[in-house]
Amino acid sequence: MATEPDRTSDGKLPTIRDVAARAGVSVMTVSRVINKQSWVSPKTRSRVEEAIAALNYAPSAVARALAGSDDRRVALLYRASTTSAYLGELLLGALDNAADHRLHLVVERCDGASAEEIVAQVQHARVSGVILPPPLCDWRELIEALAAKKIKAVSIAPDIVDSGELTIAIDDKHAAFEMTRHLIELGHRNIGFIKGNPQHRASARRLEGFRQAMRANGLSDDEQWIVPGDFSYRSGLDAAERLLDLPVRPTAIFACNDDMAAAAITIAHQRQIDVPAQLTVCGFDDTPLANAIWPTLTTIHQPIRDMSREALALLAAEIREGGTANPHVKLDYRLIRRQSDAVPPRRPKTGV
Amino acid sequence: MATEPDRTSDGKLPTIRDVAARAGVSVMTVSRVINKQSWVSPKTRSRVEEAIAALNYAPSAVARALAGSDDRRVALLYRASTTSAYLGELLLGALDNAADHRLHLVVERCDGASAEEIVAQVQHARVSGVILPPPLCDWRELIEALAAKKIKAVSIAPDIVDSGELTIAIDDKHAAFEMTRHLIELGHRNIGFIKGNPQHRASARRLEGFRQAMRANGLSDDEQWIVPGDFSYRSGLDAAERLLDLPVRPTAIFACNDDMAAAAITIAHQRQIDVPAQLTVCGFDDTPLANAIWPTLTTIHQPIRDMSREALALLAAEIREGGTANPHVKLDYRLIRRQSDAVPPRRPKTGV
DNA sequence: TTGAAAGCGCTAACAT
DNA sequence: ATGTTAGCGCTTTCAA
C-alpha cells in the first residue's frame, strides 16, 4: 500500500493542476475542495477527492502562503535566556495544533534587539501573529510596538494587564496562595520564601500570593524570611543558606521555582537536615526535575504545553475571525503533593 | 533610528520591485545583488544596496522557496518519545545557524508512521533534507527509504554504519570506556552498569565501552552487574535497587544516562548509603539535571546543541555542493567530574 | 553586465 | 455551482 505521493513523469510532486486535469475540473474547483469553501456539488467534490487520493496530492504550503492573504504564519519568539526545556515544551504544544489551525509556525530568536528591531524582524518574517513567552510577555514597549503594526501577539504568563492584548496564564498569585495555605495547614508558621527573577513578573505575583496567604492567616510576612533568587539553581543555593542561617530557622521553604527548591534540598542535605522530617521544601512549575530528585518535590504544576497550544488557538481565532469571546485564557494549575512536605518537627500534636 | 521596514503607500512590505524602481534597475539585477550572483558592476551593486538599505528591504523567504529550486527547506523530524529538553537543545542548535546557511527549518513530528508514510510526509513538506535524532537515526528502513527518494538525511548519534549516509556523533563507546577507566583508576573493582533503552543503539555502544574497559583491566563484566533500564528515572530506581541488593554490592554505579544516575542516587539516599563516600554514581549526557541534584553528578558531556548545528552545516553542504569531504562528523565529549564520584570505601590506601 | 519574459503552485476577485 | 483572469514576490531561463 503506497502512501507515497505519485510523481509526474518529470519527477515532481503532483500539483493542483494535475489533480484538476485528472478530475476533469478547473484548478479553482480543486482549490475549493481543498479549502472546504463555498459550494461544490457533492458529485464534483467526490471526483476531486478521488483524484487527490489517487495522486496522493498535498497542497504546497509555500505556494499557499505566497498566494493567500498570508495570514497563516505565526512566530514563536524567544530569548536565549529561556531554558531549552521550557522552550521545548512550548514548541511541542504549539506544533501540536499548528496544523489543525492551518498555521505555519516559525521559531525566532530575538536577542538584545530593541522593541523596534524585533518588530522589524517579525515583519520581515512575514508573520501575522506572535507568541511571547516570558520574559518577552512583560515587555510593554514590545507589545505596544507590535500592536501599532497590527501584529497580533499573545502573551504567555504575563502580568494581568488592562489593555486588550491576548493572554494565556495560570493564576500565579492564587497558586502561590494555595501552596502557602497548604504549608500553613500542615502546621508551619515560619515559612521562608525564595523569590524568582525580578525580570519575570510572575515572580512578583507568586510573592504576592505568598504574602496574602501569610497575612490572611495572621502570620507575618517579614522581609527577613523573603530572600532574593533568580530562578537559577545557583541562586537557590545561596538563598537557602541565608534562610537556614536565620536565628529562627524556617520549618518550610517555598521556592519560586523547582530549580531553586532543588537547591534548597541540596543545602539541607549538606547540613544533615532531613527533608521533609525537619524541613519542608516546595517549588513551583513541576518541571521534570521535580520527579528526579530525592525526595521528590511538592510543587505547582504549570501546564506549559497546554499554554502554547491555547496561545495558538487564540491567535488562529484572532487572525481569522478577527476576535474572540475571551482574550484572556486562564488555565488550571495543580498543587502536586510529593515527598518533600510534611508537618513541622517538634510540635506536639495536641495539648502542651 | 528606525530599523523598521518602510511600507509602500498601500501598507505592504517593500518588494524586490520597489527596490528595483528606487535603484533604477531591473528586478533581476536586484535579485543578483541579493544572491551575490554572477557579475554586477560595483556601481550598480552599490546603488542597489543603498536602495535596499533605504527601504529596509528583506526578501520574502516564501516567494523564494516557491520560485527557486526549493533547496532551502530542511526538517527536524522527531517522535513524541523524545524529551522536550533534548528536542529543545537540538532545536536551538539547528536554529542557530539555519539562517547562516540560508536554510529554512521546519519541525515535524512523525509518530507511529511507517517509513513510507514518513517519506511521504517529508515530500509533502517540500523539504530536501532531514535531521534524524535518536531513535529515528537508527531506523534503517527509514534511512534507506529517504535515500531512495534522494532526500538527504543526517543522523544524529546513530550507530556507526557502512553506507554513505551522513552522521554526527560522539564516540559513545569510547566515552563509556573512559568513564569506566576513570572509575577503575579511582580504585573501583565492583562496578554496576545500568543499561539504556535498547531501542536506542547508543545504549549498546555505551555498554560495549564499559565491557571493554572492564576486560582491558582484567575485571569481569559479569552479567549480574549489568542491569536493564530504559533511560527513564523510574527504570533507574528499579535498576539501582537490583544492584544494591546484590550479595556483593558494587562500589560504583555507571548509569547510561543522567536520569537513571539521579535515580540511583535517590535509592542510595533512601538506604542511607552516602554518595560518594560509600557509593560512586555517574551518568551520561550532562543534562541540566546533573547540576541540580546533590551531590552533583559526574557525567559525560554530550554537546547536543553543537550536534544539530553541525547537522545543519552538513545538510547545507550536501544540498548545495552536493557532497562533503567528511560525511561522518565526530564531536568531542568531555568527562565532567563533579561530586558524585570518589575512591571506594574500606580500601586501605597501602599495604594490608 | 544587464534586462525581459515566463513561470513556481496556489488563491482572490470577478465572471458565468 | 464552476470557470477565468490575475496576480503573490521571487528566480530561472534566454536574449540583448
Automatic annotation (TrEMBL), chains A, B:
Pfam families: LacI (PF00356), Peripla_BP_3 (PF13377). SMART domains: HTH_LACI. GO terms for molecular function: DNA-binding transcription factor activity; transcription cis-regulatory region binding. The keyword Transcription regulation applies. CDD domains: HTH_LacI, PBP1_SalR. Gene3D superfamilies: 3.40.50.2300, lambda repressor-like DNA-binding domains (1.10.260.40). SUPFAM superfamilies: lambda repressor-like DNA-binding domains, Periplasmic binding protein-like I. Residues 14-68 form the HTH lacI-type domain. Keywords: DNA-binding, Transcription, Transcription regulation. It comes from the Bacteria. PROSITE patterns: HTH_LACI_1 (PS00356), HTH_LACI_2 (PS50932). This is HTH lacI-type domain-containing protein.
